[in-house]
Structure formats: structure tokens, C-alpha cells
């Protein structure tokens, strides 16, 4: 293995620095700190005192250096140490000799017994070694956690144990995906059957679909159904965690997998390593090596061994075509956002996990969640369960679910956000404006709920429309209706207060986006007709498209978009002016109640004056 990893050396260097410092500290302790602490320090006395002590015969030892005199005295059992300055005293030596005082070392040398050596040198060394061990272990722990040392004993990290076992009954809907994966399951169950005929099973299957639609779940379920081990790793892990070692990791992964065959290897977010390689100014060597290694491994292993690679991506359009060639990921399975029926099924699957009332209105919940993914649905159920606990109930009700849909979509209710009465009035008129325009259209989705309780997401209120049934197509009429409804809020503000606020910012964004799409993508403008003016962005992530026309045309597009929006604004204003009484009446009701249902709304609207 090549030692490419630049980070690999630095922990060792750090360790060396650490031990160097430790040794310095131990030396410092032994030569400076311990002597100061444990060995007697001579007390400073005057020279005359020294002479007196010599005369009285208690001095036992004297040491004369160039700068000072140190001496020891003994009175009975007590030994004391003193020091004093040097004086020009020629008689000193004779005096001392007269008293037969010893010359030489006064302060006793440190006792060099084994025990004290152990205490002063052994103990600190032991301490620092232990510290070093501990620190380097925790350092290593962090490295392992981030995947840096991923070899030998790491199998458990990517091997998902059986407790997490899933099967197809955990996957709601996705009938087509399940259908096309049946063959794989069958193969894993009985490879011999296929070998006998000489049929080869696909090596790789690519699961393609928006985030949260259950691609990981389906891969796990395939492993569960076939009762084989499931290895999983994500593409971004290769790129971010195994810096410089992505290719080696791929090799290791395949080594491990072939030992456990038959098994499933799941590579999530494969687009992070499998991006198109051509046409890039800045190439990423690292990623390219990882990708090449993956391709080599896939070409190299014998599919009849029973290792099947499932990979997932939500950006199939950026994948390198080399990945999709025969013998690699040659099967493509689409995992789509759930439709109405699937959302009902999803709701039921997730509601199995929580206690709930008998009379859950699954159809209503499913209709309220158009466009939500499986992950969103799981999240909604969980929020509903949390809400039930907050409310002190022991089971989840339809109301919990309704409220949690709003939580997931619009953020938590912000109970203590204070709107002044004036602001509340503006917000109420704004929301009723949306609702009233919607109510006056033919074929528009009915209003489900209007509220002016502020949300943590920053929305001050909102109007929720729920389609009667699932719609996959949007007609031009629908689109125009939508534009008008979006303009309704601002229009109401204008009519009532003759003043406009920032509250319509979100509406403006949506209106502009839709109007632009109508012109550039849906061919809904008279001026351009069927001409495509924009290449669509990401298929599943809805990224921005790119204009594919001349700058003059771009200008015309802007004009066309502006005209659409202005027309919608005028229409919305007309509708509201014609219903000015109802606008006031409904707003007053909303201010009082803060939240009203679609039914209440229609009731007030239907009353004849
Ligand atoms: P993806 O890999 O497509 O981003 P996941 O498989 O991670 O999505 O899905 C996240 C969660 O959403 C799952 O753990 C599951 O709880 C829920 N989920 C998504 N799709 C489904 C489905 N079809 N049936 C049941 N649960 C689903
Ligand atoms: Zn609005």
C-alpha cells in the first residue's frame, strides 16, 4: 500500500514531541522542584552569628565557596543549616580548626536509595507514559471514527448486523422497484439454478430516485428477503473520510464482500465518486482513482460468486457513462415519489410503529401530503407521536397527524411570537386574500385550513389548499389559477390598506418561478409555444435549469413572465374587489379564531346577504 496519507505522519510527530517534553519536565522536577521541596534549605544568618556559633562549638560542618559560607549546627538531636556571606577573616580557618569543625559538604546529598530513585524518576516516567498511551488511544479513536484507520478489525463498521433486518413488508408501495429486484433475490437464494443454464446475474443495480424515497431501505430489504449479509458504505465516505485511500478502500470492501458471498454491497450516493469525468477543468485525481478502482473491481469479480452491488443516486444525469456499461450497473431501477395510494400505504406502515386511534383518516392525510417522500411521511408520524405525548394522550389521532404535517411543512407553531393587532390584521387580510381568490376559481383545490399563528419557519400565517385527488398533470388553467391565488395575498393588502408589506416575499418568489417555468419549460406562452428555452436542472432535486437561448430571447422571456404575473395580479384584485364584503367578514372571523377550517370558511362564504 502506498503511504500517500499526509495526515499519517503527524500523530507520530506529535507523540515524539510529547515524550521529549515529558523528559524535560522530569529533569526539571528532579533538579529544581524536588530539591526545593524536600531538601533542607539553609537559613541566612549574619556573619557575627556564624562566629558566635563557631565559638560555642555547635558547628559541625562548614563549606566555604567563593560567594558564601554554608554550615551545619547540631544541638542535641537537632541539626540546622545556615548560610552567610564571605568576610575577609584570615583567622577563620584557625578558629575552625581549633574547634575541630569538619570542612566540606554541608547539605547532605540526596539519599540515593532505590526507593527514592523510584519515586523521583520512575513515578513521573510512568505517569507520562500512561498519559501518552491514553492520549494517543483517544486520538486513534477519533481517527477510527472518522474512518482513517480502517483495516483489519474494522469489518464491523461496514457490516450491518442482522438486528436491522428489513424485508419487503417494510417497504410501502414501490411495486415496480420490488418487482424488478425479485430476480436478484431469487438469484441470491439459488445461484446454482442460474449457473446451470449459463445465465449471468446482473452485477450491479442502480437505484435512482429523489432523496428519502426509500432507496437504502429497499436495498436492505433485498438483503433481508434473500437472507444474505448487507454491506453498506456511502460514496461521500470514500471521498471525505478515506482521503488519499479511496481506491484502497474499494479494494478492501470487495475483498470483504467476496469472503461473505453471497451478499449485497450497497453504495449510497454513488454520484459523489461516479461523476462524469470529461469536460471538467479541475479534475479530481482522488475521486477518479476511486472510481477507476470501483470499475476494475466490478469488471474483475465473477458475478456468479453471488456478490451483487446495489447503488443509489438522486442525480443520475451526472453519472459517468462508464458506470452504466454492461457488466457494471446495467440495471436501472426507478424509485419514485409515492402517489396517493402509496402514501396511504406508507402512512399505514409507519403507523404500525405507534399506538393510534382506530379512526385515522388515512385518505385525508395522504391527500394533504402530495409531494412528500417516504422519509417525510416517517417524520410526520414521528412528529404526530411526539405531539400526542405533549397533549398527554396515549395514542395518535388524525388531528395530531394534521398538525404534524404543518410542523414538517411550515415549522413549529411559535406560540409566544407577538404580533401587534395591526400586523395581525394585515396577515389575516393577506391569507383570506389567497383563500378568497381560490374559492372563486373553478377547478382550484379547495381550501383546507387558514391560520395566522406564526411558525418558527418565519411564516406569519398560511393558507392550505388540498387537492381532491392526486394530480400528475398541471393544465394551463391550473397554473394560471395558482398564479392568481399566489397574487391574492398582496392584492388584499393593497385593496384594504392601500399599502404593501414584506409579507408577500415568499409568494413573489413562487409566482415568479412558476410563471418562468410556464414560459421556458411548459410551453404555455403564446409567444414561444413549444420552444424549449431552458435545459432542465437535476431531475430529482429540482435545481435551477440553464437558459438555452440568445440574450435577446432572454429579454423577451422576462417580458412574457412579467405580463403573466401582472395579469394574475389584476385578476386577483378584481376578484377581491368584487367580494369586498366577504373579505372583511372572513378576516374578522379569522382574527378572532386565528385558525379556521375550510368548512368554516365555505360556510361563511355561502351565507347570502
Ligand atoms: P433514500 O435512501 O432514498 O434517501 P431512505 O431509504 O434512507 O431514503 O429512507 C429514509 C426513511 O424513509 C426510511 O428509513 C423509512 O423510514 C422511510 N421510507 C422511505 N420510503 C419508504 C417506503 N417506501 N416504505 C416505508 N418507509 C419508507
Ligand atoms: Zn401569501
Describe the structure.
- With 609 residues, the chain is an alpha/beta fold.
- The chain has 5 domains: 6-37 and 113-145, no CATH class; 40-103, Signal recognition particle alu RNA binding heterodimer, srp9/1; 157-278 and 285-334, P-loop containing nucleotide triphosphate hydrolases (Rossmann fold); 340-409, Helicase, Ruva Protein, domain 3, CATH 1.10.8; 421-606, Methane Monooxygenase Hydroxylase, Chain G, domain 1 (Up-down Bundle), CATH 1.20.58.760.
- The protein is built from 21 helices and 16 strands.
- The strands form 4 sheets. A 6-stranded mixed sheet has the order 6-8-9-10-7-11. Strands 1-4-3-2-5 form a 5-stranded mixed sheet, with helices on one face. Strands 13-12-16 form a 3-stranded antiparallel sheet.
- The longest helix is centred in the first third of the chain and has 32 residues, at 114-145.
- Residues 171-174, 211-217, 312, 346, 349, 374-375, 378 line the site of adenosine-5'-diphosphate (ADP).
Amino acid at each position: 500500500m502506498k503511504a500517500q496519507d499526509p495526515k499519517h505522519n503527524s500523530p507520530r510527530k506529535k507523540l515524539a514531541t510529547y515524550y521529549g517534553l515529558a523528559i524535560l519536565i522530569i529533569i526539571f522536577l528532579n533538579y529544581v522542584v524536588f530539591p526545593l521541596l524536600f531538601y533542607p534549605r539553609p537559613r541566612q544568618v549574619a556573619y557575627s552569628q556564624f562566629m558566635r556559633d563557631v565559638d560555642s562549638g555547635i558547628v559541625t560542618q562548614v563549606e566555604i565557596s567563593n560567594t558564601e559560607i554554608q554550615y551545619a549546627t547540631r544541638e542535641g538531636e537537632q541539626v540546622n543549616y545556615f548560610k552567610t556571606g564571605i568576610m575577609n577573616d584570615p583567622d577563620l580557618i584557625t578558629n575552625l580548626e581549633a574547634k575541630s569543625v569538619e570542612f566540606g559538604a554541608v547539605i547532605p546529598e540526596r539519599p540515593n536509595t532505590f526507593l527514592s530513585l523510584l519515586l523521583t524518576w520512575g513515578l513521573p516516567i510512568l505517569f507520562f507514559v500512561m498519559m501518552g498511551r491514553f492520549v494517543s488511544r483517544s486520538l486513534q479513536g477519533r481517527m477510527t471514527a472518522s474512518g482513517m484507520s480502517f483495516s483489519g478489525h474494522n469489518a464491523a463498521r461496514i457490516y450491518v448486523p442482522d438486528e436491522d433486518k428489513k424485508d419487503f413488508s417494510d417497504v410501502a408501495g414501490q411495486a415496480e422497484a420490488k418487482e424488478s429486484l425479485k430476480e436478484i433475490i431469487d438469484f441470491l437464494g439459488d445461484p446454482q439454478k442460474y449457473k446451470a443454464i449459463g445465465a449471468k446475474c446482473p452485477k450491479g443495480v442502480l437505484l435512482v430516485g429523489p432523496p428519502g424515497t426509500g432507496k437504502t431501505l429497499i436495498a436492505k430489504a433485498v438483503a433481508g428477503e434473500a437472507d444474505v449479509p448487507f454491506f453498506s458504505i456511502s460514496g461521500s465516505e470514500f471521498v471525505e473520510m478515506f482521503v488519499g485511500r479511496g481506491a484502497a478502500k474499494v479494494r478492501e470492501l470487495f475483498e470483504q464482500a467476496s469472503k461473505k458471498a453471497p451478499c449485497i454491497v450497497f453504495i449510497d450516493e454513488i454520484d459523489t465518486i461516479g461523476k462524469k469525468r470529461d469536460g471538467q477543468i479541475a479534475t479530481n485525481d482522488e475521486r477518479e482513482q476511486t472510481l477507476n478502482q470501483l470499475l476494475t473491481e466490478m469488471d474483475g469479480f465473477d458475478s456468479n460468486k453471488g456478490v451483487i452491488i446495489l447503488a443509489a443516486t438522486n442525480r443520475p444525469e451526472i453519472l459517468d457513462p462508464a458506470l452504466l456499461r454492461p457488466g457494471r450497473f446495467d440495471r436501472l431501477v426507478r424509485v419514485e415519489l409515492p402517489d396517493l395510494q402509496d402514501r396511504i400505504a406508507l402512512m399505514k406502515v409507519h403507523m404500525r410503529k405507534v399506538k393510534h386511534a382506530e379512526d385515522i383518516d388515512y385518505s385525508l392525510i395522504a391527500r394533504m401530503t402530495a409531494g412528500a417522500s417516504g422519509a417525510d411521511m416517517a417524520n410526520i408520524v414521528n412528529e404526530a407521536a411526539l405531539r400526542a405525548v405533549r397533549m398527554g394522550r396515549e395514542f395518535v389521532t388524525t388531528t395530531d397527524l394534521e398538525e404534524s404535517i404543518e410542523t414538517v411543512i411550515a415549522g413549529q407553531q411559535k406560540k409566544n411570537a407577538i404580533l401587534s393587532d395591526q400586523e395581525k390584521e394585515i396577515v389575516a387580510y393577506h391569507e383570506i386574500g389567497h383563500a378568497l381568490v381560490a374559492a372563486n376559481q373553478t377547478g382550484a383545490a379547495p381550501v383546507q385550513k387558514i391560520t395566522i399563528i406564526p411558525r418558527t419557519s418565519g411564516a406569519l400565517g398560511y393558507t392550505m389548499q388540498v387537492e381532491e385527488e392526486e394530480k400528475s398533470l398541471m393544465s394551463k388553467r391550473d397554473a394560471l389559477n395558482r398564479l392568481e391565488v399566489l397574487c391574492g395575498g398582496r392584492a388584499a393588502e393593497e385593496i384594504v390598506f392601500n399599502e404593501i408589506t414584506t409579507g408577500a416575499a415568499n409568494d413573489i418568489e413562487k409566482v415568479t418561478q412558476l410563471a418562468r417555468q410556464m414560459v421556458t419549460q411548459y410551453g404555455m406562452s403564446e409567444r414561444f409555444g413549444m420552444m424549449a428555452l431552458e435545459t432542465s436542472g437535476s431531475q430529482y432535486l429540482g435545481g435551477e435549469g440553464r437558459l438555452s437561448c440568445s440574450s435577446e430571447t432572454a429579454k423577451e422571456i422576462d417580458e412574457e413572465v412579467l405580463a403573466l404575473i401582472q395579469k394574475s395580479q389584476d385578476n386577483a384584485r378584481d376578484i377581491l374587489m368584487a367580494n369586498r364584503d366577504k373579505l372583511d367578514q372572513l378576516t374578522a372571523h379569522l382574527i378572532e379564531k386565528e385558525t379556521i377550517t375550510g368548512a368554516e370558511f365555505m360556510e361563511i362564504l355561502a351565507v347570502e346577504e
